[in-house]
Specification:
CATH class of the largest domain: Alpha Beta
Shape: globular
CATH superfamily of the largest domain: ANL, N-terminal domain
Structural class: alpha/beta
Number of domains: 4
Helix content: 25-40%
Strand content: 15-25%
Oligomer: single chain
Amino acid sequence: MKNTDTTTLTKPLRKKVDFNDYLSSFTKKYGTYGVVGAAVVGVIVPVLFSSILMGKKKGKKRGVPVKVGGEAGYTVRNARNPELVQFPWEGATTIAALFEQCCEKYSRNPCLGTRKVIKKDFVASSDERKFEKVHLGDYEWQTYGQVYKRACHFASGLVNFGHNVDTHVAIFSETRAEWQIAFQGCLRQNVTVVTVYASLGEDALIHSLNETQVSTLICESKQLKTLAAIRTRLKTVTNIIYFEDDENVNISDLFGSTSGWNVSSFNEIESRGERAPVAPCLPSKDGVAVIMYTSGSTGLSKGVMITHGNIVALAAAVMTIIQGLGRNDVYLAYLPLAHVLELAAESVMLSAGCAIGYGSPLTLTDASSKIMKGTKGDASVLKPTLMAAVPAILDRVRDGVLKKIDDMGGLAKKLFYFAYKRRLQAIEGSWFGAWGLEKWFWDVIVFEKVRSALGGRIRIMLSGGAPLSGNSQHFINICMGAPVCQGYGLTETCAGTAFTEWDDTSVGRVGPPVPSCYIKLVNWAEGGYTTSDKPMPRGEIVIGGYSVTSGYFNNPEKTAEVYKVDERGMRWFYTGDIGQFHTDGCLEIIDRKKDIVKLQHGEYISLGKVEAALLSSHFVDNLMVHADPFHSYCVALIVPSQEVLEKWAKEAGIEYKDFPELCDKAETVTEVQKSLSKVAKDVKLNKFEVPAKINLMAEAWTPESGLVTAALKIKREQLKTRFKDELQKMYH
């Protein structure tokens, strides 16, 4: 029942320039001196012009102060919108209405694309572990009209299958086209969807399904075994709908006839709906569209109730920020749809008529771990114009590029770093450095090859989920040739709160408020942050407006603690984050209330701030800084980059049996410690903020291990519990 159009996107692309071919043909035609001459013209002339025309762009107001209700503080709104934006256009007050109108408007345009699996194989590593490798084909596309029909069929089939529309549906699956189709289908029957991470552990899965009293669970076929094993602990589930993949699953063997569950494939549900259509039961803007469980970085997950109005307001706001967003854009979707960042991003894309091509973190690039040698990654095939990413993924992209450059060595390496330095100087100082001639020269000679790793057409990247280091932001901006717009938001604010505008080249900030909300700073006396601080007002970040959610499901006490309604009826959410406003109205996150620890001699240390700074060390893949109030120093658990560390060991002549042994060596620990000290000095950390002792962890922290969230943020409490002994040893 897959009504699928197998045509691919055919938007003409500029022909790619291979630097080696280009240089070879240029040399053949003009000789070696011609190449040198071109380099002189391309480098010296722009540099000379740069020194003559150097100037500074006039400051632009991006956010402006405004008076509002609620607690006293310093409040800012987006400069381009005097009033908060609530809807993208008249009549689009719910996700269901917005989706229907967009599918009618863009009916023949490509909507959702998926790559077909051509071949699978398993490769054994040196330690005899097996890793799956896949060969994927081109993207096969369904139009907006086709996707809308499938969503309608699924909505009818859900009712015909016996789902009680007054109960909840949960989607327990990785990101894919069917996830979005099922989601839109549920909303057409005013059914609230509970989102569950595909990597969630059994206890957390059981907790979220039982707490929300889910009656129908939608999942992938590979997860049926997990569900069969825990079915006696699921109190309210009666229906299972699974996406048919090429997994060898026997339903009768798994569930038998006595499980009490009705089990059906996704395609069969669609067929039922097509045979027997059911009239839609459309929602209201204040109705709860999603109960989204937070990633649980500080403990047991809480279910955030996100309304139709929240998501629609965010979509309306973001469409006013991203220039030229529309049907010519292609978005690469690979982050978890159970995370608010991806759900919000895809909602925006559908609202603007963009094409969404689905991938995964393990197949993203040609060098990704799951891609079979000689085949293409998702980005190379899709050639997206828009991407969202979490900082951990952008850091990996940066590290991968730098490793290739270092491996090349010689003139190529020197040329790359010279070009990078010139472009960085342009961004940080001279407006002329971004001028066409020099920029074009470096793009053709150096950066065009780098950009092909993500398809070569990226025009905007959004980073969210955690702070992005300034080094990584500049690196991606220069090498990928596109602005990296750093966003700030929470599940409780439907992701969108602040968003860096495309022409803002500064780093370390998250931009002005999006047009659907206000951002207010209120005094936090205990931490010493006040709105009267100079040179910038500082305080706890409080968010109000149409994107602030309804609260926590079945948790009125916690809801009352962090959500407030002012005298005008506006909802405000108290984030616990500490920020400051720059003179142009852009927000910078500088601290977090829960991350501050007072050391033995009275110094305050912000764990999150120190972690964000130390992540820029090329040795560090992930880390957790820990501080004990009974000691005068902090310590850190470090997950080192295996590639970087092994390369250093080879150059230093260090002998070792395996990676864990390398991590345990005293000289290895000393080298990483030196790197941390250098980074700390560069960013001007205080001496007590630099970890006095570190422990190198050979095994990576993954969502599956329960030590990081799906957005790869560390789970501090879980890490402290798991590595309690290691932390104690560093204090003795």
